[in-house]
Specification:
The structure holds two protein chains of two kinds. Chain A is an alpha+beta fold. Chain A is 51% helix and 19% strand. Chain A folds into two domains: 133 residues, GAF domain (Beta-Lactamase, 2-Layer Sandwich); 168 residues, Heat Shock Protein 90, CATH 3.30.565.10. The two termini of chain A are 54 Å apart. The chains are: A alpha+beta, B mainly alpha.
Chain lengths: 383, 500
């Protein structure tokens, strides 16, 4: 064994140690009381993600375990207004909706309505879950004997659960808004484009009926894709195919004035992207690239492989825009003209995180380049 | 040893081509009329060539011939195993894995079991396997350049480390599929042509016998190998089951548009690898005749490089040596860049993510690339020199003891739990890596314990599978809620999904 070999071994051990440390490092943990607080907060944070899904059987089941740890009671149960969603721990399976009926009815904050079950000697401490002044369910702690401490704890935990459920409703309504925006986006693409495309097709009907027929079929396929009702995601290949149809129709209208360069790395075609995330960008590029000029305009669409991500950009060499105006459009203050870009930006951030927003490079007279990064894999995202 | 400039020129040409193509990419612009051509997905054959190009490493190009030369026909299990690994992949994993949408192994872990902790453990193991696999590539470059020019061993390692680090960090290897596919065909020509000419020359000289003594007898322990039966089983297990867990293999599968294409690609890979692996053993066998002094020495790995010059001499010998050297460097560069991309991807995604000081994604990826290639470089300077193919097989053993249980059980066993999978990764990974670390630092070992350490797969793989099953059954109440949905996604053919 050479000295070099020993050095190699030491380096290897150090590197592995460093890696493990990077992954698992924990800071100095403070006093006993601090640690108890941390433990409580940690348990709460474990229950929070499930509760943020709302009051469903699945969410309640996975939250109940952590709530039981949080309360330190023998068992825990969660109900909505109609049935028991989850029952965790011994004794909790005896809970019936009759036990919580009074709490659901009165809706008053602290009713520690403890009811004896048949012979087992358990008590149920029932606290209401209140969202927007409505009782939406109850949190039940199962215990051997009545204690004021547990009643107080149950009430507090119930209040915290209520706030999480409230956030869940907020999430749901935010998702509804986003969905409505996508729907609005679909509706928004259509009118002027449909009009222009049909006019362009009409102009070929007599002179070149075969071409007109092809264009009509392209148009049919394009609308079917744009108006499809299911799925939030699609593959980049699908999205590009739709853009190809769109550009075919636009070229029927603009002829040689519209020049398009496309370069796509085949490696990124299977990447899952939000449905209709490129369409508005290409549409804007066509509009801005050809607006206010007689000569031809060029649009460049690039999709490249970048490690664990894929980068996509749409560029035109047109009139450009004031960066300030684009910034306003991205935060949703702009005119309706740019709602498409803002919507794409928001959906990208919502799905992949803030790191993945749109990047717009532009200036008056300098053309516009809009680019995005999309991770090749993101949990829950698939076409 | 040749002192001619031909092989050096060939190596420089391959390195320059890799840098240029890797940095600037193949810039072919398409007009709209070619749109569908531009956006057509990679064909299974092209993708299979790329997988072959990335997969055929220093171990395949140089290592197998050296082992066959030194230890006889038992070593043919290495090329067989490297190929059969894809058969196992085809049957058990290929299509479901593609349908999972995972780009890296940690992605698969997260998709299937939904646990961030499991994802982190997977990330660490991916990085360690990647480093272990990069190590022999750099060592191979060192001995190749040493054999060709007499330069110190670290020079070749440094050349490959720098070239790969710079190209990967600069452009992330643009148009990588085409580059890697080209590397496969380059490697095939670089080994097949000299092999054919060598066999012809051997016939011409009256076909002198090469199978002297126990060389041609299976399980004879030729060359002083102890416990040949155990070692063979261990090699078989490691290579058959390890291929699916190699980080750079999975990344290439992502390029397939769907599960069916993934299966067709794997089938093509099997054919391409079978063709390639016909040739390295030829060098090993003929080495018995023409370069017997290399057998059993640490220079056995250079037999592929030395043989053409020894047999032919003159300009033909030099031209063939140059061709083989070019092929060898293609092997180091393609495998090393594929591995660096995978390791850097995992490092930048899972390890360096939360450090804001490291800046945006691009900068983080560059830092990750530097770490990904610098660590194995340092290790290559320090580690004991084992045979190239043996070192690579250690990486296979680690992969087989960690990701094979995760993938196979994850795809085919709905009762796998997060704890079961994590325990399997930790137990299998720790035991295999401990054996590897001992071998690379303190080896070689002797006796039965030595055999257990040098070829750990035969005990670590069953250990990992057993751990996964037992822990999962003991935590059967913790089967993730998402399991049915994940299983449906893994096993539903895409055509059905489209009409759903």
């Amino acid at each position: 064994m050479t000295p070099l070999a020993i050095a190699g071994a030491i380096v290897a051990v150090l590197v592995v140690g460093l890696l493990i440390w990077l992954l698992l490092r924990r800071r100095d943990l403070g006093s006993e009381a601090d640690r108890a607080t941390f433990a409580t907060l940690h348990t709460a944070s474990l229950a929070a993600p499930a509760l943020r899904e709302g009051l469903t059987t699945e969410a309640a089941t996975s939250a109940a375990r952590h709530l039981r740890a949080l309360l330190g009671s023998r068992g825990v149960a969660l109900t909505d207004t109609e049935r028991v969603l989850a029952a965790e721990g011994p004794g909790s399976e005896l809970l019936e909706m009759a036990n919580v009926a009074s709490v659901l009815e009165t809706g008053r904050s602290v009713v520690a309505a403890s009811l004896r079950d048949d012979g087992a000697g358990s008590w149920f401490v029932v606290a209401p879950l209140v969202v927007d002044g409505r009782v939406v369910g109850t949190l039940v702690a199962v215990t051997d004997d009545r204690t004021a401490v547990l009643a107080r704890a149950t009430t507090e935990v119930a209040r915290w659960v209520s706030s999480q459920v409230e956030l869940a409703e907020l999430d749901a309504s935010r998702a509804r808004v986003a969905e409505a925006e996508v729907r609005a986006l679909r509706a928004q693409i259509s009118p002027h484009f449909i009009y222009n495309a049909l006019t362009a097709i009409a102009s070929y009907v007599r002179t070149d009926p075969e071409h007109a027929r092809e264009l009509l079929l392209e148009f049919a396929d394009f609308t079917r894709y744009s108006f499809r009702r299911h799925g939030d995601f699609t593959t980049l290949a699908e999205e590009l195919r739709s853009i190809d149809r769109y550009l075919t129709l636009e070229r029927a209208r603009f002829g040689d004035r519209l020049q398009v360069t496309v370069r796509v790395a085949p490696e990124v075609l299977p990447v899952a992207v939000p449905y209709l995330c490129l369409q508005p960008l290409v549409e804007n590029a066509v509009r801005h690239g050809l607006e206010g000029r007689a000569g031809p305009g060029r649009i460049t669409i690039l999709a490249e492989d970048a490690g664990a991500d894929c980068t996509i950009s749409v560029e035109d060499d047109g009139i450009g825009a004031d960066p300030e105006q684009i910034r306003r459009a991205l935060v949703g203050e702009g005119d309706s003209d740019s709602i498409g870009v803002g919507n794409v930006d928001e959906r990208l951030r919502q799905v992949f995180g803030d790191e993945y927003g749109l990047v717009v490079e532009t200036g008056p007279g300098l053309g516009t380049k809009v680019s995005m990064r999309v991770p090749k894999f993101s949990p829950g995202v698939h076409a | 040893m040749t002192s001619s400039w031909w092989p050096v020129a060939a190596v420089v040409a391959v390195v320059a081509a890799t840098v240029v193509i890797g940095t600037f990419g193949v810039r072919v612009s398409r007009t709209t009329s070619d749109f569908l051509v531009a956006s057509r997905s990679v064909s299974p054959l092209l993708n299979a060539s790329a997988i072959g190009g990335e997969y055929l490493s220093a171990a395949s190009f140089l290592g197998i011939a050296g082992l066959v030369l030194s230890y006889g026909v038992d070593m043919l299990w290495f090329p067989v195993g490297y190929t059969v690994g894809y058969l196992v992949l085809l049957v058990l994993v290929a299509a479901p894995l593609r349908r999972s949408g995972a780009y890296t192994l940690p992605d698969f872990a997260e998709m299937r079991l939904g646990s961030l902790r499991l994802r982190r453990v997977s990330s660490v193991i991916v990085v360690l396997i990647g480093w272990l696999y990069l190590l022999p590539q750099l060592q191979g470059a060192g001995i190749t350049l040493h054999a060709l020019t007499g330069a110190p061993q670290w020079v070749g390692a440094l050349v490959v480390a720098v070239v790969v680090g710079v190209t990967v960090a600069a452009g992330g290897m643009r148009s990588i599929t085409v580059v890697q596919a080209f590397q496969y065909w380059l490697k095939l020509v670089a080994i097949a042509l000299p092999a054919a000419l060598l066999v012809a020359a051997w016939f011409h000289r009256g076909s002198p016998a090469f199978a002297v003594g126990d060389w041609g007898t299976p399980l004879s322990g030729f060359g002083g190998r102890e416990y040949p039966l155990y070692s063979t089983y261990s090699i078989v297990l490691a290579t058959f089951l390890g291929t699916m867990g190699l980080p750079h293999v999975l990344v290439r599968f992502y390029t397939n548009p769907d599960g069916r294409a993934a299966r067709r690609t794997t089938l093509s890979v099997l054919v391409l690898l079978s063709v390639f692996y016909l040739f390295p053993p030829v060098f090993g066998a003929l080495g018995r005749v023409y370069t017997p002094e290399l057998a059993g020495t640490s220079a056995a790995d250079t037999v592929v490089l030395v043989l053409p010059g020894r047999v032919f001499g003159g300009w033909l010998g030099e031209a063939l040596s140059a061709l083989v050297a070019a092929g060898a460097f293609a092997a180091f560069l393609s495998t090393a860049s594929g591995l660096s991309v995978s390791v850097a991807g995992v490092l930048s995604q899972d390890v360096l993510t939360h450090d804001r000081r490291l800046g945006d994604g691009v900068r983080r990826f560059r830092i990750a690339t530097t770490i990904a290639i610098a660590v194995p470089f340092v290790l290559a300077l320090g580690a004991a020199r084992a045979d190239l193919a043996e070192t690579v097989t250690l990486a296979f053993a680690v992969a087989a003891s960690t990701f094979c249980p995760l993938l196979v059980l994850g795809i085919w066993w709905p009762r796998l739990t997060v704890r079961g999978a994590t325990a399997a990764l930790l137990v299998g990974g720790t035991s295999a890596l401990a054996a590897v670390a001992l071998v690379l630092t303190l080896g070689p070992f002797h006796g039965f314990v030595g055999a257990l350490l040098e070829q750990p797969a035969a005990w670590t793989v069953p250990l990992a599978f057993g751990t996964a099953v037992i822990v999962s059954l003991r935590t059967h109440d913790r089967v993730p809620r998402t399991t049915p949905a994940a299983m449906v996604r893994l096993h539903t053919p895409e055509e059905l999904e489209a009409s759903r």
